[in-house]
Specification:
The complex is a heterodimer of chains A (about 425) and B (about 475). With about 425 residues, chain A is an alpha/beta fold. Helix content of chain A is about 40%, strand content about 15%. In chain B, about 35% of the residues lie in helices and about 10% in strands. The chains are: A alpha/beta (about 425), B alpha/beta (about 475).
């Protein structure tokens, strides 16, 4: 049994004496006798490290890691430089708590400040927070930022990731505010419908860029419609795509959010991931969660602190608009190390290469009858028809150790390609599909 | 120390990617940003050294004693990192078919099963990403319960003791509930008369931490949950302090209907400088259908009664892998042994300090205890903050300060079970040394720390004139 305790029986006796009690049961004297457990919990007996590792390895071995991944839909397999896991695996970064004691936490505070700067650079926005849980909760928090006494409705495009929509519905249901889905047309947000729906009750409008189907939205126009109705405009963006596409700021966004997983985080069956949030200066004090600011110490040296804390739950209690405290700090650091390692050209290479491979795949698929469903410009994901059915296509790929795109229904597949797949792998996938 | 941006030189980045092996794709100009993001351009060597320097300016559990109350800064076992890095866990896509992720599904099932056993709950979700996120989710179950019984409009009040974590009232608000704060007794326990006066037909539920934020187990707990149930409300258990009682007494047996656990506290997954955590939420059978769905909306329907989803995909899965590794290591013997040792260590430290520091609540405690500098602060200006900063100079992390709010000048210490008696004894000596030095020279104490990377930062200016990102200085 490995329990990580370092007390001998002698130690325990000596300590109980110093405390002035006779037994460990006395430590729990406030626990009523009928509640105090008489037996150990019904778990297996503790195991040695060797046994535990063997059991966990056996569990991991029950999963299948595909050689090739053509599935995205909100989680993307990009190449991660070796230095990323080395840096974030450093013991102190791993085991530190939230940097409450600034004087001995400058390293973590500075790393967050650098991360905030990188998110501002990627999105073009003025301020960023230290992270929230993931892209979906970032969207839900952004919607909550837009609400005021007169405006409580949020309009969300039907072409966002289904989890973003579901999480936003859950959050708005809890808070008692309204969420209205703006329909999609030809795979993109129906801007005519958005114009109809945006009114004096609308607090915010949210679209995703590139959207769930991989298509590029007319983001600037959507922003103009939101603003014309007096609403705030939120864009949920892919951070790798953001390195080459027009930024949320370019498109008039008041708030930019997104799933930060593509920035150096492995797929990990869904998490930990990273919700990033950035805004214009006018919404700075509405941002939820931790924010790091620069200041000076008594000697005038540059220093970093958690700041603008008057927004947060430990000060505002029931008047706080969010209860978030723990966030995804180590994932934010992961993103920062990834961005610093890749540099601007490296991330743009990843983005351009992903787009190029996706377009190559689309072209090759088209040649064998997998016609694109939507005509619009796309980034690194796209939807096709599956002439022999989605299930048969994906099953054939699976046999070739390829995780195919995501079946949207019986006859449509959402494909994804990143820089992490080679032309050879793409050609193989197309060959396999041709045989179906 | 320079920012990574200040170390940047044009063109210096390392090449991690090969040349693209398919024809380039050119987007129309209207889609593209005009300038590349100004990310750092540094050699890998400079990058590695930058973060090594940052690491030296940080403090983790590996660096020294970390008695940060309410945060359960126990040792984070290394094997947990090894299992969380297994490619079979890290390289699987969240939308893979079930037959290719049987290991992941089994990790979830085993963890849920063990945590249900430890807490006395019937069902669980591992989707919430942090403790506060779990609270939000747990209170949703209560809201949903009343709503589906047609009492959603009526039951709009959540009762929260004034000794609670700030997340509790904020959680109530996020759920559209009115927060009723009730005063606590001096030891932080629930004032039964105040509770009886507060409940009624508008009561949705109670949020409670037990042991409470003063480190006291509320001996009236069965009566408390009964009062709420008789009023038609439900009881929510904030599991922030479960480390004191895991394997010893179960929230389910105390009468709680739903709970959240902080896997990053009680179950030893590292805090990562502020996350990722995981906020498992458990509930009794009658609430189970309302739990969020541990499956993506991209591939699963949301059942009608479920609250939906609180996070994409399945939550912070690798955090769950670490927690399961820890549970398997501890097993049925190790779980209660850890709790009992955590309580023993806290009481030992408290006993050693009682001749120097005034305790907010004398006598025995659970896994943590609260000291107060109220008298010293009034008499000679020495504050809880001064003591905290003095401890930093001694190579120790400070306790939690100024919490709970019902104790003035509070210092809240939680040693955890993974410290040896020698560490506790040395820490007690350090606490006393800092106290004596502060009382001997209060003016000097206000200047502490003097050995850290910086002295006390100017937080007022930071908030009044926020500088929240680096900007290149114009040449």
């Amino acid at each position: 049994m490995a329990n990580y305790l370092s007390l001998s029986e002698e130690d325990r006796k000596r300590m109980l004496e110093a405390i002035g009690i006779a037994s460990e049961r006395d430590l729990y004297r406030d626990v009523p006798e009928d509640l105090y457990l008489k037996e150990d919990p019904n778990l297996p007996s503790g195991k040695s490290e060797m046994e535990v590792l063997r059991q966990m390895k056996a569990l991991a071995a029950k999963n299948h890691v595909f050689a090739t991944c053509l599935r995205g839909a909100g989680a993307y397999r990009h190449y991660i430089p070796a230095i990323v896991s080395e840096v974030v695996g450093k013991e102190t970064f791993l085991t530190a708590y939230t940097p409450y004691q600034a004087e001995i936490s400058q390293g973590i505070l500075q790393s967050i400040f650098e991360y905030q700067t990188m998110i501002c650079e990627l999105t073009g926005m003025t301020v960023a927070n230290a992270s929230v849980y993931d892209g979906a909760t970032a969207a839900a928090e952004a919607a909550a930022m837009c609400k005021d006494r007169k405006r409580s409705k949020v309009l969300v495009s039907a072409a966002v990731h289904p989890d973003i929509l579901t999480v936003m519905k859950t959050y708005t249901w809890a808070a008692g505010s309204d969420l209205v889905v703006v329909p999609a047309k030809d795979g993109k947000t129906d801007l005519a419908a958005l114009r109809e729906l945006a009114d004096e009750k609308t607090a915010g409008v949210l679209i995703q860029q590139p959207n769930y189907y991989g298509l590029l939205e007319d983001a600037a126009e959507a922003g103009e419609i939101a603003h014309a109705a007096g609403a705030k405009y939120i864009m949920s963006v892919n951070p790798i795509a953001a390195a080459v596409l027009k930024t949320p700021a370019d498109c008039g966004a008041d708030i930019a959010v997104g799933e930060g997983q593509p920035l150096g985080m492995p797929l990990s069956w869904g998490g930990p991931y990273l919700g990033f949030m950035a805004a214009g200066k006018d919404m700075m004090r509405k941002l939820p969660g931790r924010i790091v600011g620069e200041t000076t110490d008594h000697e005038g040296r540059k220093a970093y602190v958690l700041t603008l804390q008057a927004r947060e739950q430990h000060i505002k209690r029931e008047k706080a608009s969010s209860n978030i405290c723990s966030n995804e700090a180590l994932c934010a650091m992961t993103a920062a190390v990834y961005c610093a390692a890749m540099g601007p050209r490296g991330i743009q290479n990843a983005a351009n290469s992903s787009a190029a491979k996706a377009h190559y795949l689309a072209e090759k698929l088209e040649e064998i009858g997998y016609k694109r469903t939507y005509a619009g410009e796309f980034f690194h994901e796209f939807v096709t028809e599956a002439p022999k059915g989605a299930a048969a296509a994906l099953e054939a790929l699976k046999k070739a150790d390829i995780l195919g795109g995501l079946a949207l229904d019986e006859n449509h597949i959402l494909w994804c390609a990143t820089e992490a797949v080679t032309k050879e792998e793409l050609d193989l996938a197309v060959n396999v599909l041709e045989e179906v | 120390m320079e920012l990574i941006f200040e170390k940047s030189r044009p063109g210096r980045s390392h090449a991690y990617l090969p040349a693209c092996d398919v024809p380039a794709y050119a987007f129309a100009k209207e889609y593209l940003r005009e300038e590349a993001p100004a990310l750092p351009e540094v050699s890998e060597n400079d990058l590695a050294r930058h973060y090594s320097a940052l690491e030296r300016r940080a403090f983790g559990v590996n660096n020294g004693f970390y008695p940060l109350g309410s945060c359960t800064m126990k040792y984070n076992p290394k094997v947990n990192e090894v299992t969380a890095a297994l490619p079979g866990f890290t390289d699987v896509h969240p939308l893979q078919d079930a037959d290719t992720v049987e290991g992941c599904l089994e990790v979830l099932d085993l963890t849920k099963k063990y945590l249900c056993e430890i807490t006395g709950m019937d069902a669980m979700t591992l989707q919430p990403a942090a403790g506060a996120h779990g609270e939000f989710t747990g209170m949703m179950l209560i809201k949903r319960y009343h709503e589906l019984r047609g009492e959603g409009e009526k039951r709009v009040k959540v009762i929260v003791p004034d000794s609670s974590h700030g997340t509790n009232p904020a959680t109530g608000t996020m759920n559209g509930l009115q927060v009723v704060s009730i005063p606590s007794a001096a030891d932080g326990s629930v004032d039964l008369d105040a509770l009886r006066a507060a409940v009624g037909e508008d009561t949705a539920g109670l949020m409670l931490t037990n042991p409470n934020t003063l480190g006291i187990f509320d001996k009236n707990i069965t009566e408390i949950t009964k009062i709420i149930h008789e009023a038609g409300g439900l009881c929510y258990y904030d599991g922030a302090n479960l480390n004191a009682v895991m394997g010893v007494v179960r929230p389910g047996d105390m009468g709680f209907d739903c709970i959240h656990l902080n896997l990053h506290k009680t179950f030893s997954t590292p805090h990562g400088g502020g996350g990722p955590g995981a906020g498992a939420v458990g509930c009794k059978e009658f609430l189970a259908n309302y739990l969020p769905v541990d499956c993506s909306s991209a591939i699963c329907e949301i059942p009608a009664e479920s609250v939906g989803k609180v996070r994409s995909f399945q939550g912070n899965f690798l955090v769950v892998v670490r927690a399961l590794t820890y549970l398997l290591s501890l097993g049925k013997e190790g779980v209660p042994a850890s709790a009992k040792t955590a309580v023993l260590n806290a009481n030992y430290l408290k006993a050693l300090l009682a001749d120097t520091y005034e305790m907010a609540n004398p006598g025995l405690c659970m896994h943590e205890f609260v000291m107060t500098m109220e008298k010293e602060h009034k008499e000679c200006g020495v504050s809880a903050l001064d003591i905290a900063k003095g401890l930093l100079d001694e190579g120790m992390h400070a306790p939690t300060i100024y919490f709970p709010l019902i104790v003035h000048e509070a210092l809240m210490a939680e040693p955890t079970e993974t410290e040896s008696p020698e560490t506790i004894e040395a820490a007690a000596e350090t606490f006393k040394k800092v106290y004596r030095a502060a009382m001997a020279d209060p003016e000097a104490a206000h200047q502490w720390p003097v050995k850290a990377a910086i002295s006390r930062p100017d937080e007022v200016t930071a908030a009044r004139k926020p500088v929240l990102r680096w900007v290149k200085e114009e040449a």
